[in-house]
């Protein structure tokens, strides 16, 4: 899809002009008093996603001692490690995270509206800049000190609102299609279980599907398939 957008009135800005790195530390012993219930790590965030939906409860006892950085619902969490994975998404809850995730939000009186902000971090140009700014050999990492200088063209606020409405609507369609594909996969899994298993499978929600298997015949696998071999293999060498 090609969108003919007039960018003649767009303004070049730096990320630091419109976004800020929110830094509030809540020590482990005080988190319960602050009403903190959830924590998030980079593993909870999928690459190239606008939002994330996974998080853990503090009550599970698995939270690391360095996960003390506060964030609020609607903040954007950006992973500074392994930037090639492109993890930057909106938080659905309040909670705490670790130092490897930046908590970003629009500045007060910012020219960037909140609903448009996530799409800045989904652009190829941003992630190319992030990867070029990264250090390290394998798991490359970057920092706010480097990312804050990223420059991009920013539309006027009224255009941001229009674009944000369009882009969020497109994201909802994509999410709906993904859920449909997931449901189809689960349905096929259920059907396969009913056809090829003698036992009754248990589901959280019963699937209304019945198969009359009285006319089915039972075979051994070697009645239906040929065994194909490709010769002997040497034992692998171990590396100390």
UniProtKB/TrEMBL annotation:
It comes from the Bacteria. Signal peptide: none annotated. Coiled coil: none annotated. GO terms for biological process: DNA restriction-modification system. Residues 8-184 form the Type I restriction modification DNA specificity domain. InterPro entries: Restrct_endonuc_typeI_TRD, Restrct_endonuc_typeI_TRD_sf, Type-I_RS_S_subunit. GO terms for molecular function: DNA binding; endonuclease activity. Keywords: DNA-binding, Endonuclease, Hydrolase, Nuclease, Restriction system. The keyword Aminoacyl-tRNA synthetase does not apply. The keyword Kinase does not apply. Pfam families: Methylase_S (PF01420). Belongs to the type-I restriction system S methylase family. This is Restriction endonuclease subunit S.
């Amino acid at each position: 899809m090609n969108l003919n957008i007039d960018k003649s009135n767009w303004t070049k800005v730096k990320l630091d002009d419109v976004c800020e790195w929110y830094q509030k530390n809540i020590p482990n012993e005080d988190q319960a008093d602050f009403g903190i219930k959830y924590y998030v790590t980079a593993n909870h965030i999928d690459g190239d996603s606008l939002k994330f939906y996974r998080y853990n409860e503090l009550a599970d006892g698995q939270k690391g001692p360095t996960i003390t950085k506060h964030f609020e619902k609607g903040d954007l969490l950006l992973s500074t490690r392994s930037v090639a994975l492109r993890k930057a998404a909106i938080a659905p809850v309040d909670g705490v995270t670790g130092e490897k995730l930046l908590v970003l939000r629009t500045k007060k009186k910012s020219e960037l509206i909140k609903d448009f902000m996530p799409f800045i971090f989904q652009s190829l140009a941003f992630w190319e800049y992030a990867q070029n700014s990264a250090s390290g050999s394998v798991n490359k990492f970057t920092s706010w000190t480097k990312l804050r200088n990223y420059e991009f063209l920013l539309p006027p606020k009224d255009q941001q609102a229009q674009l944000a409405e369009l882009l969020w609507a497109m994201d909802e369609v994509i999410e709906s299609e993904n859920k449909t594909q997931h449901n189809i996969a689960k349905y096929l899994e259920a059907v396969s279980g009913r056809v090829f298993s003698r036992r009754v499978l248990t589901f959280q929600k019963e699937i209304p599907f019945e198969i009359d298997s009285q006319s089915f015949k039972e075979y051994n696998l070697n009645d239906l398939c040929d065994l194909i071999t490709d010769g002997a293999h040497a034992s692998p060498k171990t590396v100390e």
